[in-house]
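Message: Just now I want nothing more than another pair of eyes on a protein record. I am handing you a single protein, as its sequence and its fold in token form. As I understand it, each token names a local backbone shape. Take your time, and here it is.
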Amino acid sequence: MSLSNVVRGKQAYKEVDPLMRVSVVQVASSWRDLREVTDRAEHYRAELAVLGAGKGIQFQWHDSQVSAMELAESDALLLLVLSGGTEQLGMSVIARWNGPVAILAHPGDNALAAAMEILALARSVGHAGIIVQGSRGWREEISLAVTLAKTYSSLRRAAIGSLGSRDIEVMSPWALEGAVREVWGPQLVHLPLGELVRYSREADADAAQEIASQMQAAAERIIEPDANSILGSARIYLGLRRIVEEYHLDAVAVNCFSLLTPLANTACYALARLNDEGVPATCEADIPSCLTMLFMWYLTSQPSFLANPSSIDLRTGTVVFTHCTIPTQMCSRFSLRSHYESNLGVGIAGEPEPGPVTVVRIGGKELRDVYAVGGQLIECGEREDLCRTQLAVKFGRPEDARILLSHPLGNHHMVVRGDWTRQINSYCDYFHS
């Protein structure tokens, strides 16, 4: 995408593919009446067609002889179990598939019993999966299941770029890399921060000026940054985007404080814009936070606000989350400020509209813990002793604020618009139990 096609930093150049391609493989015992089994299959085909049209899911139908090459073209596998006595057929299909499986069990004829045996066998050889019973509400459950499966598969194809490292990390670099890969799927690509410094300095002057003009036009107010700061911020964005494109990265974590000396600027705007463009990007070289952002992007197609909890009111369950960068897609308006700690560069003071949000963080031993809480964004602050964007979130349960304070998984937490706790918990139940 050329820069002329990017309007005010709002249009993504990298999007989650809205179309989910799901292979449906039906299995039934040869001892069953063929006409009855065919009628069952046609019923589910018609119901799934309706679901697909409404949810952007393309269902591709196959019999049990489907090849591994045909299955590999899909984001998810849906095994339709139409009767009992199908364990061998079901497992032969799963053996040709590299990923999680959703099993839709007909509500009769011992189909559920067969589905349970199939899932138990599949899990014993390393496949994650879920059973949905073909009773009331099954279409919505299948929609959720294929979304989770696509998220799982997308994470296992993803690459996270790490530019620089943190001074404090809970795991050694190789242990962190192993945990990210083994537990969640993405590959870590370690890159020298000096490459970003060089690419920023080499950024095309006309392109940088165009980005700077877009930045200024989109902002409601410009307070501290001068023209040189805005132009330098644009150069960092162009340098970082070049790295993302050259190394085919799906997300990136940057040791932003190390840019202060060589560039006298910050990555706040660059990270915000990349998030707007569909590339999860975090500061402070925070890999667990970048992983959380990427997970939420694949799961929800929503960008995240990476933030510090700055105050926690245990009585009301209200937490103030702050940082100097936020995706502008999340905001009804925003101002350009300096970066709070250094008073350099271009920070973003964003103001999202009040409404439901989810606060989420991946962490813990081997990154196997997930903190996910729903709440309401109730107001935005303007304190001068905090980072520039300040969001007050009231949790649905005050006790969740106490857990955040007493058993934190880390400092940074992602704030995402909408209540996604059910999807997050379902993902963890299916793939990390």
Confidence is low (pLDDT under 50) at residues 1-13.
